[in-house]
Predict the structure.
Amino acid sequence: MIASNDTDALTAMLLARGLEAVLSRRADCGFQLLSGGQEAVAVGVACALLPKDQLLCSGRSIAPALARGLDPGSVMAELIGRSSGPCLGRGGRGHLSQPSSGFFGAHAVVAGNLSIAAGVALAMQARGDGNIAVCLFGDGACGAGALHETMNIAALWRLPLLLVCDNNLYSVSTPRAAALAPQRLSDLAAPFAIEARTVDGMDVRVVRAAALELATRVRRGAGPAFLECISRRFASHSTSARETRQPQELAADRELDPITRLENALLSEGALSAHAAQALREQVRARVKAACAFAEASPLPVPHEAFADVG
Amino acid sequence: MSVEVGNTSRVFFREAICRAVGETLDAEPNAILMGQDVGAFGGSYKEFYGLFERFGPARVRDTPVAESAMVGLGVGAAAAGVRTLVSITYMDFVLLALDPLVNYAAKARFKTGGQIRVPMVVKVTAGAKGQGVAHSQSLESWLMSVPGLQVVAPSNVADAYGLMRSALQADGPVVYVDHKRLFPTSGLLSTLPHEVPFGLAVVSRPGRNATIVTHSYMVSVALAACEQLAVDGIDCEVIDLRSLAPLDLDTICTSVSKTGVLVTLEEGQVVCGVGAEIACRVQARLGPVKVSRLGAVPAPVSSNPVLEAASLPDAARVADAVRHLTTEGK
């Protein structure tokens, strides 16, 4: 779904939250990086994209994939290794991909997708098709040389590339301030004269507005842009990583929940009734349930597929 | 140079590469060549000479010194449907680009269930020629163990052209390994477009007493050793692998079945080298045979000419190894 209005954005965030809730309760959920708390970044950015744009992301891919409109059933199937996933269950969360839906996809190496995204943008420029590539990455990637190499070439070649840093303030357990020297991560774009913004990543309307502004600029041929969204991750880094933050900090983060925030705004503005909000949640619950049923019904790959599609 | 001889012409190694790349840029209007100094400079070995003028700066792109991003962009563009050739002047520097090459390109087709393919070539120049410990390595054995990568290494003009043509038609990532000492060589090349398929080794010299399996510049070293051995009445067969992944085990085993003696020769390291893989696979198929593996000594390759020569295999050492094996037990 490409969420064009607030209700669609709310639905998209609820869907990601709901699917992850069910996934993380499964005994066979595997190694997952959840997007809980960071849905506004994925959804806000997806709102700014056209169908033939391509979104690339880090291994924290569930909300981005759903926000880009991938079918929740096939996403769930991929996450639990079933053959009905877009990657036939081989990629999993870390490498979730469906280019035909504008989701070039995840690459689970931190900073690994940055130059790939610039390459996708180069292909778009070579074809002159007017599309843009967007790369979503975490603050952890900002310490890697790949970002600087990529920004330099993207700026030189004026590539249609929007870089979006989803800064959740931690690389696993390492606080951002202990790992990265710049005041703001968007400052990293300045030496390359890349247009940059830092915004509140917990407000989907703010993310959407900034992403739209920068995407429009990139689409016009002005070269790359850099958007930093400050977010909070509600769970630990991954389903296998222990939580290192204090309960007070986690509770304060929860106060910023982007779903509650948008829902409350819509209720107070009269754009959404309490009844309609409840109905929306019911609809999403039903979709998640159907997605899980679809995934469950899909077979696991046969062992021989370990040798398929190599190269 | 390019002197017509019938329907062939005599060309330099670099011209053979240039012709294959130029034909691809002609045939595929979106294909892109990029790398350091590939533009107006014409490539570090002049192997892209004239392409910038023919195809322009959007398709023949000079890059900054940033191997990781160069290869990453090449991989990304190829994955999005634009064929790319990325040139890395020294094979040593492919180490800076292993993440996009090994972690993305080699796995893209598999990990996406066939949705994404990466039709790209990374051209690297291996071999020692006086440039020191970080500009002389032959690391092809590292890459031939990566599932999803194809690795080829021509030894002569015709294969330089034909393998590049095949590499630029492949639908997955290819590492094309050439060699500093091959650029000054020349040879005959058909004037008609043609390909050398991957996975087919060739017998460069037929012989009865021993099989030398080698590739790239070391083919000429093996042939020189054969001349010395012929004086002693030892008749060697030389197999030029051309393609390391896929590997043509059939041609190797046919030869070793006949000679009973296997010498592997490479410019890279012997430990976990191309020869280690071949020696193991040949014996798994044929049972025990006499084997010797030759390569660089286990030390860095210095720019000092005395030390460089001391660390690399030469014709005399190859001949000694063959003599030792063929006279063993006699």
Remarks:
- The radius of gyration of chain A is 19 Å.
- Chain A has eleven helices and eight strands.
